[in-house]
Amino acid sequence: MxxxxxxxxxxxxxxxxxxxxxxxxxxxxxGIKQILDEVKVPKGSFYNYFESKEAFVAEIIRxxxxxxxxxxVEFTQSTRDAISPLGQIRAIYGxxxxxxxxxxxxxxxxxxxxxxxxxxxxxxxxxxMSQSVNLWCEHIAQIVAAxxxxxxxxxxxxxxxxxxxxxxxWEGSLLRMKLxxxxxxxxxxxxxxxxxxxxx
Amino acid sequence: MxxxxxxxxxxxxxxxxxxxxxxxxxxxxxGIKQILDEVKVPKGSFYNYFESKEAFVAEIIRxxxxxxxxxxVEFTQSTRDAISPLGQIRAIYGxxxxxxxxxxxxxxxxxxxxxxxxxxxxxxxxxxMSQSVNLWCEHIAQIVAAxxxxxxxxxxxxxxxxxxxxxxxWEGSLLRMKLxxxxxxxxxxxxxxxxxxxxx
Lengths: 200, 200
Prior knowledge:
homodimer, mainly alpha, Tetracycline Repressor, domain 2, 9 helices, elongated
């Protein structure tokens, strides 16, 4: 494998450190100086990589969302023959619930957290987040449509509307799980949605 | 009306200024110094009123939640004879949607925003938020139960579970509305939930 160019390597390191800081301290609590110190990049050279803190965070959001979506697509493809579509949806959210519970909700979905903090304040970040959410919802809608074909989810409602509902319910449940420090209410709410309300 | 004691007046002013700062800049972006400057309180005296920034924010959360819950209870009582329980639920969320859209989502539900930012990091704030959400959900559950008695909402699911689902779906929808800068998706999602999935 070719050694990455120095600048590309640094850029990646800045983004990686940025994801950690953002997840823990949010947009306003994330200082460019701390990130530069961590990656050992001189202060003046930040603007060689990114135009502004805002542009940097938008890039972080895109990178984070690409990773998460990549995992989602891979999981869906690799389990297609083993698990039913509804089983896949259960597994995706069950996995995420266990993952965030394991870190005691110190950090959860980066998109949801940043959306809550600056969703109405930065157009650049808003666009990056909105695109990410749309891609996620489109992918989940495909699984929902497959579950509708299998008669596992009611088919009197368009798959994209169901997918949007699942997204909102999941993000809101995540807030409640964070506050309560456990996944009980999230499990009840998601199960109510998937196993009762969406049943054919 | 008796003139409030100076200290009580200052305390209230600090909380009021804190609500504004928090709503706009989040927990990490809110500086005690700015708030003290705004209220014209000398730096040293902050700790006469609050033990720490964390305790201050927990107090802000309680005060904010009390106000919002007070409005909710008043609305419910004053419209009891004029609007059906389901109509009340529609009106409550319709009102909130219009209210946040009018400020272009620069600030929305303070509890949801702070929960997203530090929900897993501060026990004091977590408790204050968790109590607030429980009180809100209990009140909505009462309206849901009334709607179930009126055969406007299906009664095969406990009212408190439906109320928790509405809370999560609402908070998640709020994030999406923030990102999209309009209430379209929120309206579709809430209407899907209230008018289709929860129909008897």
